[in-house]
């Protein structure tokens, strides 16, 4: 019988800036996420007292104050693991502060203690789509090599503080995202040159490798992984040129995994730099530091897409946030993301074949509009189908011999979306009474999928339906 491993880490994933709110509470500094209150596709808005608490993200779902209730609900579903992030600007409000902010550190102590009460393991991302805004304003973001040292200091502080409480870590969320949104990824403006962006990415890769080493020194029994946006591309046709271009498109994001798992820049990337006039300073010390490779690979997976070498065809057809061409064989979500469960099995096999390191699916889910029925229930069968079909493919991959550590679906509780800061794009098993105007009560409510996921976890996947 096909099975999930006995200690499979079932759970959910959220990020500080999308759930916590309390954006200036207890000494927190402004982050890049705070100055983009309309989401990562929005523009930068200067924040001061005159526009405080005006945006959804400023309060988000108020996880900062309501986490005990939310953790209890996750525990009720049987979560083994909860992925969240630490807001760097709660710990170092300006990024370059000499001392950490004790109130920020104390908040995460309480959060991890609450999780421990129920035996829920924290999986903690050091940086999920945010960094202290002052590091961008005053230092130029990751374009400046000094940020590596500030990040190291932040990582050292939290590894030391939480060494007994957190044994699973991730460095940068969707590290390849900087190729699409450099402000969110590396604190650079959208009109930066390719050389500037790749230099900043290089600094981030060095920082990631440096803190992998640090984590091993401070918490020898911890595991630390990277986090990739799994942007799986298929050729639009079987024309050899389309196949080659697709390979190259996949290399654009696999490059990050190659550096973080194999410890060096791959030849295809050096060729890309040479042929596109991209100049990246890589020192001998950087080369050595990069050899500190991760213990496991984590990734997000929401959709796949197609690509072609035919420029006009590409311009005509491109769609969704990653500008992938929609696949004519697949349906799409309300937000135009192509739904492809089989792609998840393909991706798991591809990453396992390439790296032979344990894999952790740390984001997957369906953003959809929910309706509260007159009896108060939320019948989100569409979400159940999406998740069921993806989990069936995870089990197939495990059967293929892929080592999968766990699965944390995205947004187990409704949260503010990253791309456009919407709350009506819901991912949760738990409904949060909030609307785009911010006039909701924030009351929590179990959806139909809540009971479905509880059963999946309880049965260790045996309740999934193969259809
Ligand atoms: C991932 C991010 O890209 O996708 C999350 O790591 C994000 O932060 C998720 O929320 C879904 O995207 P969105 O825009 O629907 O929130």
Automatic annotation (TrEMBL):
One of its GO terms (molecular function) is beta-glucosidase activity. Pfam families: Glyco_hydro_1. Keywords: Glycosidase, Hydrolase. One of its GO terms (cellular component) is cytosol. Transmembrane segments: none annotated. GO terms for biological process: carbohydrate catabolic process. PROSITE patterns: GLYCOSYL_HYDROL_F1_1, GLYCOSYL_HYDROL_F1_2. InterPro entries: GH (IPR017853), GH_1_N_CS (IPR033132), Glyco_hydro_1 (IPR001360), Glyco_hydro_1_AS (IPR018120). The active site is at residue 363. PANTHER family: 6-PHOSPHO-BETA-GLUCOSIDASE ASCB-RELATED, GLYCOSYL HYDROLASE. NCBIfam families: PRK09852.1 (NF007356). Belongs to the glycosyl hydrolase 1 family. This is 6-phospho-beta-glucosidase. It comes from Xenorhabdus hominickii.
